[in-house]
Amino acid sequence: MRDAGAIRYAALPLTLIVGVAGAVLQASDLPVTKPDTSQWTCDLCPFAPSQVTAVVEVGAAYVSDSAARFGDYRGLEERGAYGIGDGALRLSPEDGVGLTAAVVDAGLAARQLRLAADQPGHASVELGYRVLPHYLSDTVSTPFLQSGNRNELPDDWIRAGATTGMTRLADSAMRSDWEFERRTAEAEGRWHISPQWNASFGYRHDERIGRDAIGAAFVNLGAQIPQPVDDRTHSVDAALAYAGDLGAGQLAYYGSYFSNASLALDWRNPFIPVVEGADIGRLALAPDNSFHQAQLSWTQRVGRHTRWSVRAAYGEARQNAAFLPYTSNVELLGQELPRDALDGKVSTTYIDLRLNTDLRAFGELWRGARLVVDAQIDDRNDRTPTDLFERVESDSFIAAAAINRPYDFERRRMAVRLDYDLRRLLPKLPASQRLSLAGGWRYESFDRPQRQVRLSRERSGWARIAYVPRPWLTAQLELGTGMRESGGYRSDIVDIARQNPLLRQYDLADRDTERAEFKLSAAPTTDWGVSLTTSYASHAFVNSPLGLMGTRTRDATFTAHRSVGANTTMDIRAGWGRRTAAQLGSQAFSQPDWSVKTEDQTRSAGAALRLAELAGRFDLVLDYSYVESDGGITTDPGVLPIAGFPALRHRMDSASLRIDYQHNARWSIHAELVAERYAADDFALDAVAFDSIPTFLTQGARTLDYDLRYIALSFRYRSNQEARVAR
Fold it and tell me: For position 494, what pLDDT does the model report?
């Protein structure tokens, strides 16, 4: 349960926001009428003649059980009582600056504060602060004692060659939740300079504080260890926009600055070292970096029926964090680093040219056609210096040196789309019916000088026909196909971790794609309507001796809506999906000697009922949703020791009831009940304890099952919206 300290903590930025907003508006020289306080007689409205709206909601909530998954992003992870505290104030002067202040969920770990000031037609400023908790797991334990960026073991820890021999493991394991909190402060400003010119500015500060987990290894022995989360991101954007008779355009800047208080992580080896000196391991974490980008866009109308546009952006990314030493193993006396830091520099260039026009100039037959041509350039230029670096595997032994390879690419895209009204060809089609045809073609080339596949080309096309036999009925069918071809794998590019030469990376491999989608929607009256969507997609990796062979996806969704009068609405929704994949592997680092197939199915359903103004005072919302998924992994084991894996299952159903009672124009009462259940069977978690894997020490995470109830009751007060100061 969150105490009042959370409310006090959340209120501090609001004071700062109010002060900053006032300073910004004064700095912009906007006219603000100062009130004559000597004649005030209204205690609730101490401002100049204006309309004041204030809303305050207070209450309490109760969660019947602790559940990290239910509380994730909500701040309701622990069993117990919580305070409900929401409020909003809107001051709308007849002329001058309007003010809005709002607080949401002040008593929870997930809370928000907003303040806005605006003068219509001139300028606006908005500031905000929010906290968002992320609960990854509350089922983990670890023997590691985290102190800053170092993970130690208890003094009486007994090392072993396998987890089964760690006799102090059970007694040393301590609760260590995976969770972190994101705190965001942001400011936005807009200035209406003239009827043609507008300017905007934004700043955002993100801070993450907490703990996660990361894998660490000494050769073939590894552990899941706590990882500190302590980083900050500052981002800035500014834009100057023009819209006039000549066209419309924008010049903009975006900047991002990331800093990490934890640049490295040390941990003590819980196993008997495989080599002398392999007692302490070290990992580099996310380094400080920055990114700057300038953007330009312009749209121009040519005549009545043609429009062209251009978008361009140039960016620079930099990273120059200091390198860690080659190893923390003092027994390995290697060479000196060729340089102290990465000195990483990457530039990006993006250009998009688009022409949108109709084809009536080619004759009467083409009056129903519209053509869109789009060309794009997307380049990445990596100017990071290259050197020969010594390699130390898992702080245990020295391996062959390697050169850090840059990563450049040049991507070119060309797309053409044509939309045509088929009524031009079918004059006998009734005027009340519509029949349209659309199609497109796309070509993409991708040149990657430092990858195993340097050049790849992809061609794709699609066609869609839409028929509207009645104004309330629409049917649409879309078909598409595509083919990606590569220039073959290069033998002169070798990864540090050598792979089977027959293995193909699915993002680079030759691929054939097929897809289809059908949509049907009907709304005979404004009171009810239904829609059905089905889709199919397949990817076949036609020239891959090893790796992913293909995938297939099928989906269907159905929705229905019904209104009875002005106060009753009903909604029904349902969905189904099936995804399959096939993969070939080689245990012998040669030809395929095993295969695996995966199949996942999802089913979902839901319904909602909304009743408004029952007995003139009650609003009721009843909602139910159900989601289940099943996963299967089947193998043709070949040389593998296992013939299959246990099934994967996930189930969640949730029912909620909300009742709003309007006592009078100012007071209302709100009650909510949620019953939610989640259950999962995941062998990768539930079947793996601390010592289940002899060569890997886990933290014993489990699936986050729960079955709980959430109850809330609150009272809301709304001031008289027409309240005015009496003089």
Answer: 65
